[in-house]
Design a protein that fits this description.
399 residues, alpha+beta, four-stranded mixed beta sheet, two-stranded antiparallel ribbon, 6 strands, globular
Length: 399
């Protein structure tokens, strides 16, 4: 890929500069058509967070989250017991684990760079790729077809992030190709995971929602809502969709689902409505749905929507206060009900002296409790206990 920020410069200047950028993408496609001769570190996921407003990028590493075999789970439990019983409560072990993760990630990036494959662990230049696609859709379509034609799975994964950016940019001009690419590339494990800040939207979801302006990708997005197995996935989809300006599309999906005769679709729509940062479907939540399944789902949905209102209420009081004690008292009450929707409210609140002084600390506390609350939602669907994997496997076998 051309040097960092070359895409933004090419998008702004166009002309020969854009032609040079496109030539650099051509070179990248040819070079990364072979798998990198460097293996990714085991048990480590690399992340790059992109701030589209400031063009900044943050890099970090996390332990890879995978389902463990029973013996692996026992090992994890034994390690947890050792940490809890350590004199410092495991703080030293946590610091060492973070240091080891970051060192493994840095070693991987250096080895890639030395082997001539440094772009494998860098972010795609979104603005440049979008501008290049706008100028010459056929050239971008050729790039995307080349990625999809890769027979080596490692080479395809290396180019998947670039392919996702190009795919959503082609939604208007090459809808069928866009749909094929989204369906193929979104499930790949890439060498580095790109997330869009501040909501940390994974690039595959970002590309799908951005492309949903066209009917084919919109059908894929609707399918994501329909097959979500727990409330955590529904919550992030709703949050991401609104954050990326596709709230009108989600309104339309919700209206159709609420009018469906099947109770499960209505329950899904009620849950999504309650999990959105803001909703225009208040009447649907307040409607009396009896004491059966939909009545119970609606009660959970009203409680979920109410928590968001209370979180914003306490955040407004905190950020409007002039007394540090009142600031932290209201902030603590907000933390008791906040989930990740608080990001939308947090950005809207004005910068007061106390926010400038304590905002970073309160924001981090809110983020930690919100992440924990989202993890708890992995165990529920429509506010009720989520079916286990055996249920979904049996359901797949029956259709």
């Amino acid at each position: 890929m051309p040097p960092r920020f070359a895409g933004e410069i090419a998008a702004a200047l166009g002309g020969p500069v854009m032609d040079a950028f496109a030539a650099g993408v051509d070179t990248l496609m040819r070079r990364l058509s072979a798998p990198a001769p460097v293996s990714a570190p085991r048990g480590v996921d690399l992340f790059i967070g992109l701030d589209m407003a400031s063009a900044g990028a943050t890099r970090w590493a996390e332990p890879r989250q995978e389902k463990s075999a029973p013996e692996g789970q026992e090992g994890d439990l034994e390690a947890l017991v050792q940490r809890v019983n350590a004199p410092d409560g495991g703080l030293a072990a946590d610091r060492e684990e973070r240091r080891s993760l970051q060192q493994s990630a840095e070693d991987y990036r250096q080895r890639l760079s030395l082997s001539g494959f440094g772009e494998v662990a860098t972010e795609p230049q979104i603005e440049g790729l979008e501008a290049a696609t706008s100028k010459d859709p056929e050239r971008s379509a050729r790039w995307l077809r080349g990625i999809l034609a890769q027979s080596d799975p490692h080479a395809r994964a290396q180019l998947a992030n670039v392919g996702l950016v190009i795919a959503q940019a082609l939604a208007d001009d090459r809808e069928d190709l866009c749909v094929e690419a989204l369906a193929t590339l979104r499930g790949l494990r890439t060498p580095v995971h790109i997330v869009i800040e501040p909501e940390r939207i994974p690039l595959p979801d970002w590309a799908l929602i951005r492309a949903a302006r066209a009917s084919g990708p919109a059908a894929l997005l609707a399918a994501e809502y329909e097959v979500a197995r727990n409330d955590a996935r529904l919550a992030e989809l709703a949050r991401f969709t609104d954050a990326l300006g596709a709230g009108a599309w989600l309104d339309g999906w919700t209206n159709a689902a609420l009018a469906d005769p099947h109770p499960a679709r209505v329950a899904r729509a009620l849950t999504v409505t309650a999990l959105r940062p803001a909703t225009s479907h208040v009447a649907a939540l307040e409607k009396d749905r009896g004491t059966g399944f939909l009545g119970e789902v609606a009660a959970h949905a009203r409680a979920t929507a109410g928590r968001r209102c209370w979180a914003r209420h306490w955040l407004e009081i905190a950020c409007g206060s002039t007394d540090p004690v009142a600031f932290w008292a209201a902030g603590t009450l907000a933390a008791r009900v906040a989930d990740l929707r608080f990001f939308a409210d947090w950005r809207d609140l004005r910068d007061t002296p106390l926010v400038l002084r304590f905002g970073a600390a309160l924001g981090e506390e809110l983020r930690q409790v919100a992440v924990k609350r989202e993890r708890e939602r992995q165990r529920t669907l429509f506010g009720l206990k989520a079916p286990d994997d055996a249920f979904w496997a049996a359901l797949r076998g029956s259709v």
